[in-house]
Amino acid sequence: MTEPQQVAERYARRRVGDRYSLLRPEVWQMVHERQRAMLKLFARAGVHDLWALRLLEVGCGQGGNLLELLRLGFAPEHLAGIELLPERLAQARRCLPAALVLHEGDALQAPVADASQDIVFVATVFSSLLDDAFQQQLAAAMWRWVKPGGAVLWYDFTVDNPRNPDVRGVPLARVRELFPHGRIDPRRITLAPPLARAVCRLGAGLYPVFNALPLLRTHVLAWVEKPG
Fold first, then answer.
1. What is the pLDDT of residue 17?
2. Between 20 and 30 A from 228 (CA), which of 19, 26, 44, 126?
3. Is the pLDDT of residue 15 over 80?
4. How many CB atoms within 10 Å of residue 202?
5. When comparing pLDDT for 79 and 13, which is higher?
6. How confident is the model over 107-134, as a mean pLDDT?
7. Rounded to whole angstroms, how far apart are CA atoms 14 and 119?
């Protein structure tokens, strides 16, 4: 099977329940933390007028990240998403504005023009890709889609999950390999999810206490700028 077919098979056997529900205190704190870090990255990169920027999300899932971006000020007609799994894409279509373009299937086959995007956003996608060559092909396609002066906005975890052989961490060194010509501005964020779930069972207020320790953060949010 191709890597996209294997990804679909691996997702089909996942049972996550309400693990990613915003009703869970660790989840909404992770989301809010990432939003704050993202806005700081935008400001640091000199990004203004979000409504005018074109952004494509690779692996948009059920549309949650695109909904966040709409709230931050992006215009729906300038947003697009690609999703491999039909059932997730169907959910995204139900909750997102009609002006937002969604593509179904393998991202490498998506009809995206080179240098057409100000930002290509990818969140916890590469950690689900176990084939190094496919990772490299997808990264190269994303890099082609970004305009000179634009960027890849990256969010993924850096350490392996011993309980889940269907994923693997993507350390910052690998991000540098995938985008060798990019100028990378990284931030380590997100309290390790298993620890976050455990401490929030004791009290939601413990999340920022433990998250204050950088060694307990497992994800990287990075702005990978393409030279103009």
1. 76
2. 126
3. no
4. 8
5. 79
6. 97
7. 30
The CATH class for the domain spanning 3-10+37-188+217-225 reads alpha beta
CA distance 155 to 81: 16
pLDDT interval class at 162 (50, 70, 90): confident
Tokens of 89: 């894409």
Kindly report each contact of residues 24-30 with a partner whose C-beta sits within 8 Å and lies 24 or more positions away, as own/partner: 24/197, 24/200, 25/200, 25/204, 25/207, 26/191, 26/193, 26/196, 26/197, 26/199, 26/200, 26/204, 26/207, 29/196, 29/200, 29/204, 29/207, 29/208, 29/211, 30/190, 30/191, 30/193, 30/196
Where helices occur in 48-192 by DSSP H, the ranges are 64-72, 86-95, 132-145, 172-178
Q: How far apart are CA 39 and CA 45, in angstroms?
A: 10
**pLDDT score for 20:** 85
**Distance in Å from the first CA to the final CA of the chain:** 38
Using the predicted structure, report yes or no on whether residue 14 has a pLDDT greater than 90: no
pLDDT value at residue 88 = 95
Q: Locate 52 and state its tokens.
A: 């005018």
> So where are the chain's domains?
3-10+37-188+217-225
Token pair of 74, please?
């992006």
Residue in 224, 204, 89, 59 with CA at minimum distance from that of residue 150: 224
8 Å CB contact between 152 and 224: yes
Average pLDDT over residues 156-171: 93
- Report the alpha-carbon distance of residue 93 to residue 185 in Å, rounded: 32
- pTM beyond 0.90: yes
